[in-house]
Specification:
CATH architecture of one domain: Sandwich
Structural class: alpha+beta
CATH class of one domain: Mainly Beta
Distance between the termini: 28 Å
Number of strands: 30
Helix content: 25-40%
Shape: globular
CATH topology of one domain: Immunoglobulin-like
Largest sheet: 8 strands, mixed
Length: 657
């Protein structure tokens, strides 16, 4: 996941992961309560034991019988539109059926009917508290007008806690739960419905069965006239319906509805669907598709497989903030027009696409099973997000979308970002991941308080790759580590631990000090030895003193909700003296709308600037002069005296183009 196309102060690629699917590529399932990859990804594989033939036959007869009764009851109640279709799968339980009505777009209300066949007494339904971001957001706050019927008779669902309801003591051949959800958020980290379009993260819309999350799912969407729908979900057996093996896989499939533009291409036997909501004049469809083709070709070549038949890119191009959210067989990416022009779109797309392996299929044990209520252990985000950024950048170079010198500048910026954060001295990469749940507090991003697991994880990925290549005379690399994780864990429906990762590295590169690397650089806070590792590829880290303009504050793009927020304000700075505060939302700079944190990069020392900010319900104007500061500037350069073996490592690392 990426939470900003270009944010300052380390918020670029910073934070947010969401329900991620995982487990065996073709038949993951999940049984534990909770969510996310958490809600960012999650499906754990649980093979079912075979049933005796006689029991299977009886179960099949009983399912068909109950299905017939259910259909009759629904018909008599004039609710056939919301009735579940007859099951065609060899499961004892009928699928959970959802009807999702998007026609009330002016009121921003999604109307849902959830239908359960053969509901036991005391059936529980539960609403996730989080998804797409590592934040407890209590989505139930948007649920309204909940009512239920048991076999056509109104019944009361008793509230067990703020997220959980329970049916009565009677058994229901057909239990219907109807409710509305108010959705006014922005993609890709929230859900929204308006007169232009709808974007849904289904974990924010649909209740689940906490005791039966493994049950199959069927969905039917009712759209306003003239709208169409795009989603990674598999088409169902009936026209206009979709299906999923379980709730977790369904939750990991975003939905776009409206009058979007659509493009597609076929590559290596798979179909890529490209959906764009936005002004056609803001982008070139030809350039967009060609860029995606290069990214998908490079990354599937790297991993040696295409583990899907269809992949869906959903883009939102418009105003305000943005970011990217990975899903098992798709991604949703939002950016402003300025974000497209800045060139960051390809980087986000490469990052999100590689997630279909790293975190969606190659999943750390701490993220399983998904806990939709309390969240999961996120200590491995340095790998699942940071190393994903490593490959996002390497893929651009190997695909010919980024020149080497531009790549070197990107690496230097990441080094600069980490070195400018005093918190690196006490917060490790692992701890940064564990504390991801604090990211909903803007003060947490202060350089004195935190480092980004995206930022440090990306650097650790580069160093680990170079270290393995050096230790094996360029025979092995981080690519081989990803292949082993994919083959030994993703393909077998298993989840890896830190020990598993260390053992793979030890086996591939016995000469690499894996234990020291994890102790000092991943779990610890030792200063990273950039010079040594870059030297393995015939590169030098050059430090130069630099007088740089300093506005006196850092800012970043908010998590999908639009606007640029002040992350921290330097004590004693002109910005602080003028009254700017952490948490302020910056709407305009010198009278012009601010679309991204990069707007402050071009400010010059001594320049007078005026900011229009929103603080709660108040609108304020803040004027001050930009200051300056002395700092160390970093650059990565090729060593003209590099040895032939170092040059070979560099070529193996970046490709020979």
């Amino acid at each position: 996941m990426v939470t900003g196309i270009a944010a300052a102060s380390g918020l670029y690629r910073a934070q947010a992961l969401g329900v991620r699917g995982s487990g065996f590529p073709d038949e993951p399932s999940s049984t534990a309560p909770g969510g996310r990859r958490y809600s960012w990804s999650a499906f754990f594989f649980e093979p079912r034991s075979p049933k005796p033939e006689a029991r299977f036959a009886f179960a099949r007869w009983w399912r068909l019988f109950c299905g017939s009764v259910a259909m009759l009851v629904v018909s008599l109640q004039s609710a056939a539109a919301a009735a579940p279709p007859a099951s065609t799968e060899p499961n004892a339980e009928a699928p959970v059926f959802y009807q999702v009505d998007l026609r009330d777009r002016r009121s921003h209300i999604v109307h849902v009917t959830m239908t359960l066949a053969n509901a036991e007494p005391g059936t529980e339904i539960q609403f996730p508290t989080w998804y797409a971001l590592y934040e407890i957001r209590d989505f139930v706050k948007d649920v309204q007008d909940l009512e239920a019927e048991c076999d056509g008779r109104p019944v009361t669902m008793a509230m067990e806690d703020i997220d959980t309801w329970q049916s009565g003591p009677q058994r229901c051949t057909l239990l219907e739960v109807r409710y509305g959800v108010y959705v006014v958020g922005l993609a890709p980290f929230s859900s929204g419905l308006d007169e232009e379009h709808g974007f849904l993260n289904l974990a924010m819309i649909l209740f689940y069965l906490p005791r039966e999350r493994q049950r199959a799912i069927r969905l039917k969407f009712i759209l306003p006239e003239g709208w169409k729908l795009a989603t990674p979900l598999e088409e169902g057996d009936a026209p206009g319906e979709f299906k999923s093996l379980n709730y977790d896989l369904m939750a990991d499939s975003p939905v776009e509805a409206g009058t979007f533009d659509e493009y597609d291409y076929t590559q290596k036997g798979a179909t890529y669907q490209v959906v764009v909501h936005g002004d056609r004049s803001s982008y070139s469809s030809k350039e967009l598709v060609e860029t995606l083709q290069k990214i998908t070709a490079a990354e599937t070549d790297l991993m040696g497989e295409v583990p899907f038949s269809r992949y869906t890119f959903i883009f939102h191009f418009g105003k305000g903030g943005g970011g990217g959210m990975e899903h098992r067989n798709g991604t949703a990416i939002s950016t402003s027009v300025e974000g497209i022009k800045s060139g960051g779109l390809a980087s986000v797309a490469a990052h999100e696409f590689f997630h279909l392996w790293d975190v969606k299929r190659i999943r750390p044990q701490g993220l399983e099973p998904i806990d939709y209520i309390h969240g999961n252990d996120t200590r491995d985000l340095w790998f699942s997000e940071g190393v994903d950024s490593t490959y996002g950048e390497l893929a651009l170079v190997r695909a010919g979308l980024k020149r080497r010198n531009d790549f070197y500048r990107s690496v230097a910026r990441q080094i600069q970002e980490l070195e400018d954060r005093p918190a690196r001295k006490f917060q490790s990469a692992e701890r940064s991941g564990r504390e991801a749940w604090l990211e909903k507090y803007s003060d947490y991003f202060r350089p004195e308080r935190s480092v980004s697991y995206y930022n440090k994880g990306e650097l650790l990925g580069f160093l680990l790759d170079l270290g393995i290549r050096h230790a094996t005379a360029n025979v092995r690399s981080l690519d081989d580590v990803m292949h082993r994780l994919n083959q030994d864990f993703a393909h077998r429906g298993r989840f890896f631990t830190d020990d598993d990762l260390k053992n793979i590295i030890r086996g591939l590169a016995p000469g690499f000090p894996a234990d020291d690397f994890f102790r000092d650089d991943v779990d610890g806070t030792a200063e990273l030895d950039y010079a040594t590792y870059l030297g393995y590829a015939g590169l030098r880290l050059v430090k130069r003193p630099l007088q740089r303009s300093d506005p006196g504050f850092s800012a970043g793009v908010g998590f999908g909700e639009g606007g640029v927020q002040v992350v921290s304000v330097e004590a004693g700075s002109n910005a602080e003296n003028a009254g700017l505060k952490s948490g302020d939302s910056i709407e305009k700079l010198n009278g012009k709308p601010v679309a991204g944190a990069w707007a402050f990069d071009a400010l010059k020392s001594g320049e007078s600037i005026s900011l229009e900010v929103r603080r709660g319900r108040r609108s304020l104007s803040v004027t001050f002069n930009v200051g300056s500061r002395q700092e160390i500037s970093y650059s990565v350069e090729e060593d003209p005296d590099a040895s032939p073996s170092e040059v070979e490592v560099r070529k193996g690392w970046l490709g020979r183009n």
